[in-house]
Amino acid sequence: MSRIGRMPVVVPSGVDVKIQGGYVRVKGPKGELEHTFPSAMKILLKDGEILVERPSDERTHRALHGMTRAIINNMVEGVSTGFQKVLEVNGVGYRAELSGENLVLQVGFSHPVVVEPPEGISFDVDTRLRQIFVRGYNKEVVGQVAADIRKVRPPEPYKGKGIKYLDERIRRKAGKAGRV
Questions:
Q1: Which domains does the chain have, with CATH numbers?
Q2: From CA 101, how far away is CA 122, in angstroms rounded?
Q3: What is the pLDDT, as a whole number, of residue 140?
Q4: Among 92, 86, 78, residue whose Cα is nearest residue 29
Q5: What is the C-alpha to C-alpha distance for residues 85 and 148, in angstroms, rounded to an integer?
Q6: Which of 147, 145, 149, 160 is nearest to 90 (CA)?
Q7: Running DSSP on this structure, what letter comes out for residue 87?
Protein backbone atom coordinates (compact mmCIF):
# COMPACT_ATOMS: atom_id res chain seq x y z
CA MET A 1 0.00 0.00 0.00
CA SER A 2 1.18 3.54 -0.71
CA ARG A 3 3.08 5.04 2.20
CA ILE A 4 2.21 8.56 1.13
CA GLY A 5 -1.43 7.70 0.38
CA ARG A 6 -1.97 6.11 3.80
CA MET A 7 -0.81 9.15 5.76
CA PRO A 8 -3.64 11.44 6.91
CA VAL A 9 -3.59 15.15 6.01
CA VAL A 10 -3.94 17.19 9.20
CA VAL A 11 -6.19 20.23 8.73
CA PRO A 12 -4.89 23.17 10.82
CA SER A 13 -7.23 25.58 12.56
CA GLY A 14 -8.42 28.41 10.32
CA VAL A 15 -8.62 26.14 7.26
CA ASP A 16 -12.05 25.16 5.95
CA VAL A 17 -12.37 21.98 3.85
CA LYS A 18 -15.41 20.97 1.81
CA ILE A 19 -15.55 17.55 0.13
CA GLN A 20 -18.28 16.49 -2.32
CA GLY A 21 -17.43 13.23 -4.05
CA GLY A 22 -14.20 13.87 -5.95
CA TYR A 23 -14.44 17.67 -5.61
CA VAL A 24 -12.36 19.26 -2.82
CA ARG A 25 -12.38 22.97 -1.88
CA VAL A 26 -9.89 24.28 0.68
CA LYS A 27 -10.15 27.81 2.07
CA GLY A 28 -7.65 29.42 4.45
CA PRO A 29 -6.02 32.70 5.43
CA LYS A 30 -3.75 32.82 2.32
CA GLY A 31 -6.42 31.99 -0.29
CA GLU A 32 -8.80 29.42 -1.69
CA LEU A 33 -8.05 26.36 -3.87
CA GLU A 34 -10.29 23.78 -5.47
CA HIS A 35 -9.56 20.58 -7.35
CA THR A 36 -11.53 17.70 -8.86
CA PHE A 37 -10.07 14.25 -8.30
CA PRO A 38 -10.90 10.94 -10.03
CA SER A 39 -14.12 9.46 -8.69
CA ALA A 40 -12.36 6.16 -7.90
CA MET A 41 -10.52 7.74 -4.93
CA LYS A 42 -12.56 7.98 -1.73
CA ILE A 43 -11.79 11.20 0.19
CA LEU A 44 -13.02 11.39 3.79
CA LEU A 45 -12.87 14.10 6.47
CA LYS A 46 -12.69 12.64 10.01
CA ASP A 47 -11.65 14.38 13.25
CA GLY A 48 -9.80 17.23 11.53
CA GLU A 49 -7.92 14.87 9.20
CA ILE A 50 -8.40 14.09 5.53
CA LEU A 51 -8.01 10.43 4.55
CA VAL A 52 -7.68 9.07 1.01
CA GLU A 53 -8.70 5.48 0.32
CA ARG A 54 -8.45 3.48 -2.89
CA PRO A 55 -10.92 0.82 -4.02
CA SER A 56 -8.41 -1.82 -5.17
CA ASP A 57 -4.75 -2.60 -5.75
CA GLU A 58 -4.91 -2.01 -9.48
CA ARG A 59 -1.92 -0.19 -10.96
CA THR A 60 -3.91 2.96 -11.81
CA HIS A 61 -5.52 3.10 -8.35
CA ARG A 62 -2.13 2.72 -6.66
CA ALA A 63 -0.75 5.58 -8.78
CA LEU A 64 -3.72 7.84 -8.06
CA HIS A 65 -3.69 7.09 -4.31
CA GLY A 66 -0.43 8.82 -3.40
CA MET A 67 -0.89 11.60 -5.96
CA THR A 68 -4.36 12.49 -4.64
CA ARG A 69 -3.12 12.67 -1.07
CA ALA A 70 -0.07 14.75 -2.07
CA ILE A 71 -2.18 17.28 -3.98
CA ILE A 72 -4.62 17.63 -1.07
CA ASN A 73 -1.69 18.09 1.34
CA ASN A 74 -0.22 20.81 -0.91
CA MET A 75 -3.60 22.54 -1.05
CA VAL A 76 -3.96 22.56 2.75
CA GLU A 77 -0.34 23.66 3.30
CA GLY A 78 -0.62 26.36 0.64
CA VAL A 79 -3.71 28.09 2.02
CA SER A 80 -2.37 27.93 5.59
CA THR A 81 1.36 28.78 5.26
CA GLY A 82 2.06 29.27 1.52
CA PHE A 83 5.03 28.35 -0.66
CA GLN A 84 8.21 30.14 -1.69
CA LYS A 85 10.95 29.67 -4.30
CA VAL A 86 14.20 31.63 -4.16
CA LEU A 87 16.15 32.53 -7.31
CA GLU A 88 19.62 34.05 -7.46
CA VAL A 89 20.89 36.50 -10.10
CA ASN A 90 24.60 36.10 -11.00
CA GLY A 91 26.56 38.22 -13.46
CA VAL A 92 28.21 41.62 -13.79
CA GLY A 93 25.49 44.21 -14.41
CA TYR A 94 22.70 41.67 -13.92
CA ARG A 95 20.02 42.82 -11.49
CA ALA A 96 16.39 42.47 -10.53
CA GLU A 97 14.08 45.10 -9.08
CA LEU A 98 10.40 45.65 -8.40
CA SER A 99 8.30 48.18 -10.31
CA GLY A 100 4.97 48.17 -8.48
CA GLU A 101 4.03 44.49 -8.42
CA ASN A 102 6.01 43.65 -11.58
CA LEU A 103 9.50 42.19 -11.57
CA VAL A 104 11.99 43.97 -13.83
CA LEU A 105 15.05 41.94 -14.87
CA GLN A 106 18.16 43.42 -16.46
CA VAL A 107 20.19 40.42 -17.52
CA GLY A 108 22.37 41.38 -20.45
CA PHE A 109 19.72 42.09 -23.08
CA SER A 110 19.35 45.47 -24.79
CA HIS A 111 16.04 45.90 -22.97
CA PRO A 112 14.73 45.13 -19.47
CA VAL A 113 12.48 42.07 -19.14
CA VAL A 114 9.23 42.72 -17.25
CA VAL A 115 7.53 39.77 -15.52
CA GLU A 116 3.93 40.32 -14.39
CA PRO A 117 2.77 38.15 -11.47
CA PRO A 118 -0.31 35.96 -12.08
CA GLU A 119 -3.13 35.96 -9.55
CA GLY A 120 -2.03 34.71 -6.13
CA ILE A 121 1.70 35.29 -6.75
CA SER A 122 3.86 38.03 -5.24
CA PHE A 123 7.49 38.93 -5.87
CA ASP A 124 10.07 40.25 -3.43
CA VAL A 125 13.64 41.24 -4.25
CA ASP A 126 16.69 41.46 -1.99
CA THR A 127 19.02 43.72 -3.99
CA ARG A 128 21.94 43.26 -1.60
CA LEU A 129 21.96 39.45 -1.91
CA ARG A 130 20.65 39.59 -5.52
CA GLN A 131 17.81 37.19 -4.75
CA ILE A 132 14.27 36.99 -6.08
CA PHE A 133 11.52 35.52 -3.88
CA VAL A 134 8.44 34.06 -5.57
CA ARG A 135 5.61 33.55 -3.05
CA GLY A 136 2.10 32.16 -3.37
CA TYR A 137 -0.43 29.67 -2.07
CA ASN A 138 -0.56 27.34 -5.11
CA LYS A 139 2.58 25.18 -5.25
CA GLU A 140 2.21 24.39 -8.94
CA VAL A 141 1.90 28.06 -9.96
CA VAL A 142 4.81 29.15 -7.72
CA GLY A 143 7.07 26.52 -9.29
CA GLN A 144 5.97 27.40 -12.83
CA VAL A 145 6.52 31.16 -12.35
CA ALA A 146 9.97 30.51 -10.85
CA ALA A 147 10.83 28.25 -13.82
CA ASP A 148 9.66 30.94 -16.26
CA ILE A 149 11.85 33.57 -14.56
CA ARG A 150 14.85 31.20 -14.69
CA LYS A 151 14.14 30.58 -18.39
CA VAL A 152 14.70 34.30 -19.17
CA ARG A 153 18.48 33.81 -18.70
CA PRO A 154 19.45 30.28 -17.58
CA PRO A 155 22.89 29.93 -15.98
CA GLU A 156 25.70 29.19 -18.39
CA PRO A 157 28.43 26.66 -17.51
CA TYR A 158 31.56 28.75 -18.24
CA LYS A 159 31.19 31.78 -15.97
CA GLY A 160 28.00 30.85 -14.11
CA LYS A 161 26.15 33.98 -15.25
CA GLY A 162 22.37 33.89 -15.30
CA ILE A 163 19.38 33.22 -13.05
CA LYS A 164 19.43 30.02 -10.98
CA TYR A 165 17.61 28.50 -8.03
CA LEU A 166 19.28 29.21 -4.69
CA ASP A 167 20.05 25.53 -4.01
CA GLU A 168 20.95 24.69 -7.63
CA ARG A 169 24.51 23.58 -8.42
CA ILE A 170 25.91 24.65 -11.78
CA ARG A 171 28.48 22.26 -13.29
CA ARG A 172 31.30 24.46 -14.46
CA LYS A 173 33.28 23.74 -17.61
CA ALA A 174 36.86 24.65 -18.38
CA GLY A 175 37.39 27.32 -21.01
CA LYS A 176 39.61 26.90 -24.03
CA ALA A 177 42.38 24.35 -23.66
CA GLY A 178 45.07 26.93 -24.47
CA ARG A 179 44.18 29.21 -21.56
CA VAL A 180 45.74 28.79 -18.15
A1: 3-80 (3.90.930.12), 83-165 (3.90.930.12)
A2: 7
A3: 95
A4: 78
A5: 12
A6: 160
A7: E
